[in-house]
């Protein structure tokens, strides 16, 4: 059965992915030097839109923008079109079409291809990048996700076994059941044969398969086409079409602060951003990527965003905890629970800023206002004769908030604490 018919037999339920929102894509692009279109006045194209589970909510939230979704599965488009009609949305079109032969009118400020690239034939992968090259606006941003090496090297043999074992099996439900069964048996058998040598790897793969939904098993593990990529190979394909790597769609997923200090220091010495990202994939064993592309020729600013661009932005926080509460104010650092796990936050200005955002939630605070609230000009402790604390203190007895001295006024980035089991010096990476 072809993948197109598989989706008709077992449709893929759509979801909303926050990192595809035009506001998020626009902010990331702007911070890297692009003049991106505003979220409330843009054109968005989604390739492989499924039943519109991601695109339709975006259209409902941004009524003054225009959205076009394309998918090969008739059942997906039928379900999505029905939803659009029931919601009465006039700013979104869902079209049944093949990316390999698709022609779209005009250009788009944002192009999304999430869950498409690794799961289609090679000709369709090439056609998708060609389409992005033709349809992306001059300052547009394209998001393409794909399974990645080296992480998928662990799962690839098991996925291939699942697909091979279920080829003669008819019916989606039976295929999924048989696939789970053979994966469970094989992984446990490998642990028994090789013991500790393969135990960790096989248990991890078994856990991933066990946690996967039936839909994910059918369309990710049992699909006809499946091609993970190394990051540098994906970028080479994009560059061949006049496209350039802009950033990761989820900037916090792969960052220097997530590595041990000696590894982070080594990575900082790698000047080429693509080589640095590829090193990160090796060191983090990355298995999935969401990559942002733009047109080649832009002066991409990767290290620090211009102040003028920052001044036009706002920030929000979803922390439930006040990290600058009086009870914990004198602590050197405070640990909070975030979606990615425990995060340790240190640095007075950063903690004050997060406290301001937590109290203002769900409002997004303009950065100018946030800076003023974090480092108030008239609230230096030494301006009060009764204040007995120094300007570098975390609190002052006069009731105001201190303004740290310039030497200490550098917010410490939030980062997850890493295991320190491996302490040998990191090797030097060729620049």
Q: What can you see in these coordinates?
A:
With 431 residues, the protein is of the alpha/beta class. The chain folds into 3 domains: 3-149 and 228-295, Rossmann fold (3-Layer(aba) Sandwich), CATH 3.40.50.150; 152-221, no CATH class; 317-408, no CATH class. It is 39% helix and 15% strand. It has 15 helices and 11 strands. It has helices spanning 3-9, 22-31, 55-61, 74-87, 122-135, 152-165, 172-194, 196-211, 214-221, 231-239, 261-268, 273-284, 307-311, 348-360, 367-374; strands spanning 43-47, 66-71, 92-96, 108-113, 136-147, 243-248, 288-295, 314-315, 333-338, 341-346, 365-366. The strands form 3 sheets. Strands 3-2-1-4-5-7-6 form a 7-stranded mixed beta sheet, sandwiched between helices. Strand 2 (66-71), helix 4 and strand 3 (92-96) form a beta-alpha-beta unit. Helix 7 runs antiparallel to helix 8 and helix 14 (348-360) packs across helix 15. It starts with a helix and ends in a 57-residue tail after the last helix. The model is unreliable at 377-425 (pLDDT under 50).
Which descriptors would you attach to this protein?
single chain; about 425 residues; alpha/beta; Rossmann fold; 3 domains; seven-stranded mixed sheet; two-stranded antiparallel sheet
Approximate helicity band:
25-40%
Number of helices: 15
Classification by helices and strands:
alpha/beta
CATH superfamily grouping of the largest domain? Vaccinia Virus protein VP39
Largest sheet: 7 strands, mixed
Stretches where pLDDT falls below 50 for ≥5 residues? 377-425
CATH class of the largest domain: Alpha Beta
The arrangement of helices and strands along the chain is HHEHEHEEHEHHHHHEHHEHEEEHEH
- CATH topology call of the largest domain: Rossmann fold
Q: What is the second-level CATH architecture of the largest domain?
A: 3-Layer(aba) Sandwich
Mean pLDDT: 85
* The number of domains: 3
In what order do the strands lie side by side in the largest sheet?
3-2-1-4-5-7-6
Distance between the termini: 47 Å
Number of strands: 11
In percent terms, what proportion of residues is strand?
Answer: 5-15%
Radius of gyration: 25 Å
Bulk shape: globular
């Amino acid at each position: 059965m072809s993948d197109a018919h598989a989706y008709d037999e077992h449709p893929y339920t759509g979801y909303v992915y926050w990192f595809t929102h035009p506001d998020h894509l626009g902010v990331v692009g702007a911070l890297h030097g692009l003049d991106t279109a505003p979220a409330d006045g843009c054109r968005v194209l989604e390739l492989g839109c499924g039943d519109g589970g991601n695109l339709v909510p975006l259209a409902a939230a941004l009524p003054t923008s225009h959205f076009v979704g394309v998918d090969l599965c008739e059942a997906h488009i039928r379900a999505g079109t029905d939803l659009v009609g029931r919601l009465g949305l006039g700013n979104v079109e869902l079209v049944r079409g093949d990316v390999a032969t698709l022609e779209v009118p005009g250009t788009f400020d944002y192009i999304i291809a999430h869950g498409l690239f690794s799961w289609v034939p090679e000709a369709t992968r090439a056609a998708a990048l060609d389409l992005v090259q033709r349809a992306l606006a001059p300052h547009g941003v394209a998001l393409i996700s794909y399974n990645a090496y080296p992480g998928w090297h662990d799962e690839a043999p098991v996925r291939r076994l699942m697909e091979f074992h279920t080829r003669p099996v008819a019916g989606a439900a039976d295929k999924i059941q048989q696939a789970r069964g053979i994966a469970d048996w094989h992984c446990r058998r490998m642990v028994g044969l090789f013991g500790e040598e393969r135990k960790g790897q096989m248990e991890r793969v078994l856990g991933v398969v066990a946690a996967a939904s039936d839909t994910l098993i059918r369309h990710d593990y049992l699909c006809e086409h499946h091609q993970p990529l190394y990051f540098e190979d994906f970028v080479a394909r994009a560059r061949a079409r006049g496209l350039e790597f802009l950033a990761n769609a989820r900037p916090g997923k792969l960052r220097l602060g997530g590595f041990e200090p000696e590894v982070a220091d080594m990575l900082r010495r790698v000047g080429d951003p693509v080589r640095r990202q590829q090193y990160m994939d090796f060191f983090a064993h990355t298995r999935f990527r969401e990559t942002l592309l733009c047109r080649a020729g832009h002066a991409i600013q990767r290290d620090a965003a211009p102040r003028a661009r920052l001044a036009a932005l706002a920030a929000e926080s979803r922390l439930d905890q006040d990290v600058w509460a009086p009870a914990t104010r004198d602590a050197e650092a405070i640990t909070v629970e975030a979606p990615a796990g425990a995060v340790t936050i240190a640095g007075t200005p950063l903690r004050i800023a997060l406290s301001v955002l937590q109290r203002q939630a769900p409002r997004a605070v303009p950065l100018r206002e946030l800076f003023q609230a974090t480092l108030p000009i008239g609230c230096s402790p030494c301006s009060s004769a009764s204040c007995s604390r120094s300007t570098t203190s975390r609190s002052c007895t006069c009731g105001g908030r201190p303004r740290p001295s310039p030497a200490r006024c550098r917010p410490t980035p939030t980062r997850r604490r890493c295991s320190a089991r491996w302490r040998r010096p990191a090797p030097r990476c060729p620049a």
